[in-house]
Amino acid sequence: MSNFRINHVAMALPDIASFLEKTRPVYDGFTRSPLITNQRQSVREQFLSDGNTTIELLEPLGDSSPIAGFLKRQRLGGLLHLAFDVDALDPAIEVLTAAGGRVVTPPIPDIAFDERRIAFILLAGQIIELIERP
After folding, report:
1. Which own/partner contact pairs does 62-66 have at CB distance under 8 Å and 24+ positions apart?
2. Which of 4, 90, 114, 122 sits a CA distance of 20 to 30 A from 103?
3. Domain segments of the chain: what residues?
4. pLDDT at residue 2 above 70?
5. What whole-number distance in Å separates Cα of residue 100 and Cα of residue 88?
């Protein structure tokens, strides 16, 4: 088994800076990663953490961004996916596809995780991101 462990919860937002300004009372004490422009996924992203839980904030780089459709339906944004660390990506994908999941994004290296491979799976109507452990 791939030892699934939650890495983060992701939110799609129309504008990260605006969201952080409006929610300052909630997130002001959280640590913040630098804002990353991820051309591969066509998003800007930033991670927040309270020391226990990590939240990934995602903002589209344009209409071709994979989160643009979600934001057309949810104009103010919302929860997008759960991400899990796994020991090995390919066996984890096999487990989820055997359970009825469908690969949405096949394995690719990701700059937000030091070029470790990630994949996105749709399972039971939910998007799951898998992140291969180093």
Report:
1. 65/41, 66/41, 66/42, 66/105
2. 114
3. 5-132
4. no
5. 19
Give pLDDT tens digits for 36-64.
Answer: 999 999 999 999 999 999 999 999 999 99
pTM for this structure? 0.93
Give the closest residue to 48 by CA, choosing from 11, 6, 5. Answer: 11
Q: Angle 129-93-98 (CA atoms, 0-180°, nearest 5)?
A: 125
HEC profile of the chain: CCCCEEEEEEEECCCHHHHHHHCHHHHCCCEECCCEEECCCCEEEEEEECCCCEEEEEEECCCCCCCHHHHHHCCCCEEEEEEEEECCHHHHHHHHHHCCCEEEEEEEEEHHHCCEEEEEEEECCEEEEEEECC
